[in-house]
Amino acid sequence: MGLLDDLDRGLLDLIFPRDCAVTQLPLDQGPFLHLSPEGVAALPRITDPRCLTCGHPFDGWLEGERSCPHCVELHPAFQRAVCAFRAQGPVRQILHRIKYERSPYLADDLVAAATTDEPFRRHLAGSVLVPVPLHAEKAWSRGYNQSARIADGLAGLIPGCTAEALLEKHRPTESQTRLDRTRRLRNVAKAFRLKPGQAVDPRRRYVIIDDVLTTGATLHACAAVLRAAGATSVDAAALAHG
After folding, report:
1. pLDDT tens, 142-161?
2. pTM of the predicted model, to two decimals?
3. Which CATH code is given to the segment(s) 44-241?
């Protein structure tokens, strides 16, 4: 964690005590720096049943190998994606603050809360976590890559995980936010590549890490690069789906 990321810590806490990022109430002592127990409980989690490909939650069981309407047209290069939360309510607000309001430190608590979900932990355990990269211009203007911070945090909390920045985004792309599924796929196609001097080990399992999985287009594009480089086992994960 860099100094600029943590200006809300240390001596500033004595002057301006933290409020919970969800309830906006003052924080007492607890395991999280920016979330109260009540705030953590309010985060909308994903539970089974969920799509075995993209991780989208269902309110009932669906039959058939590819019956999920959220990824049926994707045919992803990753085998399976798992997400801990729904990108709704307080989770969406926190992710917005992380990405657009220069609050990367909030990712640390969201990561810690995500790792209390056993299916999420099992999905990542023992893998190489590969963050979705930002284009150099975007990384410079934002000052950090939230996906890299998430991957580093997960690697520190889940046994056997390492975080490796194997990919780079060599071509700037339009924001995915307002694009439909087809345009999202076209927008990120061939935007990523393996970093010079990097290689994959076909004996290792790789998991592409992002903050949010919406259509899966970005995770698919990154997974395809690892596949082309020789990776035989590639999955994906994001903190939230939606």
Report:
1. 999 999 999 999 999 999 99
2. 0.89
3. 3.40.50
